[in-house]
Amino acid sequence: MNLKADYVPWPHDFLRSLHGLPDLPPDHEKSLQQAIARLKLPPGLAATLARLYYPLAVYLLERLAEIPSPLVLGINGAQGTGKSTAARILKVLLERGFGRHVCAISIDDLYLTREARGELAINVHPLLATRGVPGTHNVNLGLRVLESLQKAGPHSETVIPRFDKAHDQPFPCADQEIFVGHPDFILFEGWCVGAVPEPLSALTRPVNELERREDGDGEWRRYVNKCLADYQPLFQKIDILAMLKAPSFDKVYEWRALQEKELQSQLSKTELRNSRLMSGEKLKRFLMHYERLTRWMLTEMPDRADFTFELDDKHSVEKITVKVVR
């Protein structure tokens, strides 16, 4: 992601609207620079993104003084928009820059096991074998994790689930993350974080070839939409919602293909042979599962999101809309 050079009003105008700009503790500055450098992003990109998200971090610090911790920031974005990177940058800014305790969790880490999705495929609809849409996550697990973090004491240990996309299964229990203590912030990111169900009238017409051929009667999309209603107690935990808005669904495939290529480059030849990574037509079919809800969010969510970072075709931030400044 790039930040257009002529888009300067975001940090200056936004920060000026806040009560005050907190000073970066001098002893944290070097630590912050080192932590950003370890994010393994292209040269200059991490620093650019740090400048982009710094005002948001400042705003979160201000809001933390007004509500009981932890403050939950929801980060929504279609595949490839950079939501996971945004969470990583914000975590560094808040932890290393301002000495706060931060837990990051992705809705992707709540995916059901391949076996559980297989049962849904048999009992409800074959398309539910593919992870991604509402109905393929363990919502109760997500609620338990967030509630555990909210109630955590200084020495509490909370298990944070992690999902292995390369093998399409949750990581073993021994490889799950343990978060110690009570967080000041929870960064909750994911492609459908904060989404609301579509109107039933919108479900009558298929949006792509997958729905036309494999969900002709609409049973799958109605089930997914119904399940999304069950996600609302989880999304109601969000205090601030930020959206990374893709210019269109057509760009999502291109950006997700780059993600798959990056994942492939991180695996050994043996791991690659045993992985379930995708490309070409297989990836296109996979993304068709996400298309309906993605298109709906691109239309509906910007009117609700507290922060909307609009991306152009080149993955640059074209416009930032803020609805929370007092």
Structure overview:
This protein is an alpha/beta fold and about 325 residues long. It is about 45% helix and about 15% strand. It contains twelve helices and eleven strands. It has helices at about 10-15, 25-35, 45-65, 85-95, 115-125, 140-150, 210-215, 220-230, 230-235, 250-265, 270-275, 280-300, and strands spanning about 1-5, 70-75, 100-105, 155-160, 165, 170, 175-180, 185-190, 240-245, 305-310, 315-320. The strands form three sheets. Strands 1-11-10-9-2-8-3 form a seven-stranded mixed sheet, with helices on one face. Strands 4-7 form a two-stranded antiparallel ribbon. Strands 5-6 form a two-stranded antiparallel ribbon. A hairpin with a 4-residue loop joins strand 5 and strand 6. Helix 2 packs antiparallel against helix 4, helix 3 (about 45-65) crosses helix 4 (about 85-95) and helix 10 crosses helix 12. The chain is globular. The two termini are about 30 Å apart. Residues about 1-10 have low confidence and may be disordered.
